[in-house]
Amino acid sequence: MPELPEVEVSRMGIAPHLEGQQIAQAVVRDKRLRWPIPDAVVNFAGAFIKQVERRAKYLILHTDKGYLILHLGMSGKLRVVPSESLVVKHDHFDLQLTNGQCLRFNDPRRFGCVLMSATHPGVDHPLLRDLGPEPLTESFTADYLHRQSRGKQQSIKTFIMDNHVVVGVGNIYANESLFKAGIHPKRAAGKVSLARYQKLVPIIKEILTAAIAQGGTTLQDFTQADGSPGYFKQHLNVYGRGGKQCMVCKSLLKEIRLGQRSTVYCTTCQR
C-alpha cells in the first residue's frame, strides 16, 4: 500500500504537469472505486488547476470550480501521458487537459477514490477534517505527541500510526522509527517519557524526509507509460527482516503482529 512518502512523490511527479493547466474533460471508464466516482466530476471541464496539494495520503487538486480528491488506495498509480495514448486494463479515470496531456488513474484493486468537494476538503470533508497534523510540519512536536499520549495504554506503535494523532506514519516507517529511537513497539504510549518522544519525533521526520528524497529519483516515471510511479527502493533496518540479524547488535530480529500489522523489532536494541 502506498504510504505518505510514495504519495508525496506522486504529488511531486504530477504537479509540474498539472498546475496552471486547463481541464478539457474528465473521462470515467469505471466509476466503481472504493466509493463511486461522482457523475458531477464531468463539470470540471474548463476548470484551471491552481495547485496540487497532499493531505495525509490524499491528493487534492485545487481548481477554480472546486476540489478533486484522489486516493491511491492499495494499488493505485497516477501517470501524466498523452490523452490519446493506449488505454490499458484498470485505467479507470482520465483528467484530460487542453494541452493534449492527461492525468491517468490506474487501480487494479479499486480501493482508491476520485471524489469532489465544493470547499477545501481539509476543513469539512468527513474523510479529512479529523486528521492529525502532518509529520513534517512544525505542529508535530515531541510536546504534542507526549501530551496526546498521556493515559494511553495502547502500544506506542499503534499510537503513532493513528491518523487522528499524526498522519502518514505507516507501518514501514513506524517500524523503522521505533528501531532507530530504541523504543520497544509494545511499550504503552502513555508510559513513554517526554525525553524519549524528543528523540522519536526528529527520527520520524528524518526517516520520512529521506524516503521522499529517495523517491525523488523516480520522478521521470510519472511520464513514462511503462513506469511504476510512486514506488521506490529504500534502505530498511527492520521492516521485512524478521528472523534476520539486527544490523546493530547482530541479535535475531523478532516479528509479531500488532494491530493486525507486521511488527519487527530488536529485543536487545529496543526497550
From TrEMBL:
* Cofactor(s) required, per the database record: Zn(2+)
Which SUPFAM superfamilies does the record associate with it? Answer: Glucocorticoid receptor-like (DNA-binding domain), N-terminal domain of MutM-like DNA repair proteins, S13-like H2TH domain
This protein's record includes keyword Zinc-finger: yes
Which reaction does this enzyme catalyse, per its entry? 2'-deoxyribonucleotide-(2'-deoxyribose 5'-phosphate)-2'-deoxyribonucleotide-DNA = a 3'-end 2'-deoxyribonucleotide-(2,3-dehydro-2,3-deoxyribose 5'-phosphate)-DNA + a 5'-end 5'-phospho-2'-deoxyribonucleoside-DNA + H(+); Hydrolysis of DNA containing ring-opened 7-methylguanine residues, releasing 2,6-diamino-4-hydroxy-5-(N-methyl)formamidopyrimidine
- Residues binding DNA, per UniProt: 90, 109, 152
Q: What is its EC number?
A: 3.2.2.23, 4.2.99.18
Where are the active-site residues found? 2 (schiff-base intermediate with dna), 3 (proton donor), 57 (proton donor), 261 (proton donor)
Q: Name one GO molecular function term.
A: 8-oxo-7,8-dihydroguanine DNA N-glycosylase activity
UniProt function note:
Involved in base excision repair of DNA damaged by oxidation or by mutagenic agents. Acts as DNA glycosylase that recognizes and removes damaged bases. Has a preference for oxidized purines, such as 7,8-dihydro-8-oxoguanine (8-oxoG). Has AP (apurinic/apyrimidinic) lyase activity and introduces nicks in the DNA strand. Cleaves the DNA backbone by beta-delta elimination to generate a single-strand break at the site of the removed base with both 3'- and 5'-phosphates.
Q: Which NCBIfam families match?
A: fpg, PRK01103.1
Indicate the family of this protein.
Answer: Belongs to the FPG family.
Q: What is this protein called?
A: Formamidopyrimidine-DNA glycosylase
* Originating organism: Pseudidiomarina homiensis
